[in-house]
Task: structure prediction
Amino acid sequence: MSTFNATALRSFYPSIAPHRHGMLDVGDGHQIYWEECGNPNGKPVIFLHGGPGAGCNENHRRLFDPARYRIVLFDQRGCGRSVPHAYLEANTTWHLVDDIEQLRELLGIERWQVFGGSWGSTLALAYAQTHPERVTELIVRGIFTVRPQELDWFYQAGASMIFPEAWEGFLAPVPESERGDLMGAYHRLLHHSDPQIQLAAAQAWSRWEGDAVSLLPNPVFADAFAEAHHALAVARIENHYFVHAGFFTANQLILNAGKLGHIPGVIVQGRYDVICPPQTAWELHKAWPNSELTIVDDAGHAVTEPGILHHLIEATDRFRD
Result:
């Protein structure tokens, strides 16, 4: 393990546009948006976004050298440009793992690098443990394995003591009598028959995440997280996954980390990541012998934290050949 303090920092590659995109019908009423950027003959990499429910954005394309990588992105079921929006039927981790395989086959890719942060790290680990023969390298950030202690920390008590003013906003839609199980209370609100009650709950849920995502306060993040279309997908899909423990058995991703043994891996983690504290990254590193862990001492959760971004770019450059 290494720790890191900022000196000369790498940053995003220049903006690029997709050269190919489409909609893939994955069944169950879902169609997922996908796109390719960079070099069509380059090293294949798939980017797995966070949430679940957040969708991809243009900065995600810029984590990879476009001259050397064939960059594949997609919006997971129910979010971003995928349809139907915020749809929860047939929407589980294992549906998403199957969708990644369908996309790989559609694009004619034999093996690829897998990159994911936050929930994207969860999905990356689930995919790599299910299809290790398809993964050349694994780069993960802000490690999250959907265990009860991780969910309780952020959605019941823990992070609330670090951001008390933002926590009041998260509590606001929930009657005091229901605050002993906030995820359960939000589940009821996010499935309310009144769309306005659903939306208000979704915006409170998503803004809480936006308030805590960076080391230093960033109102732009909080406002973006609370935008109605984004918030509804993030809140409904996250809550759906979390009340079902990510559709995992107990401690599944850590216990199965031995399946990653032959895969070179990089783990990048912010020391002051309040959403996904470093304990989980440490446990994953110890269970995954072929992993390299860097803890960035002056970083929170967001991919845009300068030290986090630096180490991710360093990792994708290292593996591009």
About this structure: The chain has a mean pLDDT of 96. The radius of gyration is 18 Å.
